[in-house]
Amino acid sequence: MRIDTAQGPAEVAVDDVDDPAFLLVLTHGSNGGVDAADLLAVREAALGFGGAVARVLQPFRAAGRRAPGSPVRQDAAWLEVIAALRDRFGDVPLVQGGRSNGARVACRTARAAGAVGVVALAFPLVPPGRPDRSRADELRSAGVEVLVVNGDRDPFGVPDRADATEVVVLPGERHDLDRNPAAVGAAVEPWLRRWTARAPAPGGGAR
Question: Which of 18, 55, 73, 87 has its CA 20 to 30 A from that of 93?
């Protein structure tokens, strides 16, 4: 699926399901793609709960660039993608997330996107060697419930448990979260299950 934005086209890999319980929209880091091991693990978990999944290759990566550029323009393009996906999937609960830079985008735009929750994988709390430049405010200001999954050896740091609704720290993992992808999926499963329980059934009531 191609979605045109003011910053260029985004490419979206969609796993559609009949009557989705929720829509999970995921994106990559600043120099990555949508087939990262942790993103695929979260995708599998969501599909197991009957969620539809969209993995978004943002315009800057679709154009072959390594740097996302202005956060304002990146966030605006993300919201255009979300609007197009909303048109396709309708009024189902939206959970958005991503890894690294993508986790930052998901947090910054959660309120404007109308998301019910954020999955922040390998959230880059600080640039390596710059502990004075914390990005914890992006987690705290998301305006929705945020699950963080980080490795205990991440050179970008690990968010404090007070900075998000829940912080899961996986032993032995670095920033790539690719040592044990199954552990990433297992960490996210209880989070996704809550949105399945809250999704409205046809005619009202809970699923």
Answer: 73
